[in-house]
């Protein structure tokens, strides 16, 4: 008769389902807090917020347009904190949540925020070029979302990225796609062309019908493009990481 020895099974390690960087949750939480506060404050608060913080191109060309001194410049960033309604905020937050993860894990908090904020600014610049001298009210963080999405493309489609289970460690050992690879490899090329195509189709439908395709509002397509280009450029500027071999298991 042999003695049975008790063997302990290895403890299971819990892995967060979303594993979203804290900075991303803070940004989204801030957007919801601002919108909720303005909804609670009522119409007067919402109008005052747009007057002070929405991006309005005519501020730069019509000197007697009623405005707070300096608002033409800070509104090129603050417009990203405002949203038209809960649906607008919800969709922007969802896409921001999805595409921010690989960028924040790869670049870190400060460089991720730099990509996001710079893309918002680039969206305002694009809006200013297209709507120079026009009374157009631009709100929403869509340009920032577009920039973060563009920065995520070289990471998501890199070999070994495992985007669905991406962690800080495994994203430090991948080699992101180069700009040439993005436009020569099938999957990232199709993704990029699909996004650009939908953006330009939105622009065309607005010029023809006055509203965006499948939307009941005007969409700042030019801000999306401006943010996208800025995000892609900044990723390669900021990602100076020397890729080291993955550790052997």
Give me some keywords for this one.
single chain, 249 residues, 10 helices, disordered C terminus
Structure description:
The structure is a single chain. With 249 residues, the chain is an all-alpha fold. Helix content is 59%, strand content 0%. The chain contains ten helices and no strands. The protein has helices spanning 22-41, 43-53, 71-78, 86-107, 109-130, 142-156, 168-171, 179-182, 186-209, 221-238. Helix 4 (86-107) crosses helix 5, helix 5 crosses helix 6 (142-156) and helix 6 crosses helix 10 (221-238). It is globular, with a radius of gyration of 22 Å. The chain starts with 21 loop residues before the first helix and ends in an 11-residue tail after the last helix.
Count every helix, treating DSSP H or I runs of 4 or more residues as helices.
10
Cα-atom radius of gyration: 22 Å
Helix/strand class: mainly alpha
Mean pLDDT metric: 83
Proportion of β residues? under 5%
Give the biggest sheet: none
Helix content: 55-70%
Low-confidence segments, given as residue ranges, are 1-17, 242-249
Span between termini:
39 Å
Number of strands: 0
Oligomer: single chain
Order of helices and strands: HHHHHHHHHH
Q: What would the principal axes of the Cα set say about the shape?
A: globular
């Amino acid at each position: 008769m042999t003695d049975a020895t008790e063997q302990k099974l290895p403890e299971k390690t819990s892995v967060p389902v979303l594993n979203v960087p804290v900075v991303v949750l803070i940004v989204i939480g801030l957007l919801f807090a601002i919108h909720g506060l303005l909804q609670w404050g009522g119409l007067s608060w919402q109008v005052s917020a747009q007057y002070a913080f929405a991006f309005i191109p005519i501020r730069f060309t019509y000197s007697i347009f009623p405005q707070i001194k300096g608002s033409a410049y800070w509104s090129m960033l603050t417009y990203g904190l405002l949203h038209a309604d809960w649906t607008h905020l919800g969709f922007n937050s969802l896409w921001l949540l999805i595409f921010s993860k690989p960028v924040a894990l790869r670049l870190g908090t400060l460089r991720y925020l730099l990509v996001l904020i710079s893309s918002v600014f680039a969206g305002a610049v694009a809006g200013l070029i297209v709507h120079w001298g026009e009374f157009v009210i631009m709100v929403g963080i869509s340009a920032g979302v577009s920039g973060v999405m563009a920065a995520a493309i070289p990471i998501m489609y890199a070999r070994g990225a495992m985007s669905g289970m991406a962690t800080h460690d495994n994203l430090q050992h991948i080699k992101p796609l180069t700009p040439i690879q993005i436009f020569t490899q099938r999957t990232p090329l199709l993704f990029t062309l699909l996004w650009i195509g939908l953006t330009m189709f939105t622009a065309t439908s607005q010029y023809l019908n006055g509203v965006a395709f499948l939307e009941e509002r005007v969409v700042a397509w030019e801000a999306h493009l401006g943010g996208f280009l800025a995000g892609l450029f900044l990723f390669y500027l900021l990602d100076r990481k020397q890729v080291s071999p993955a550790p052997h298991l």
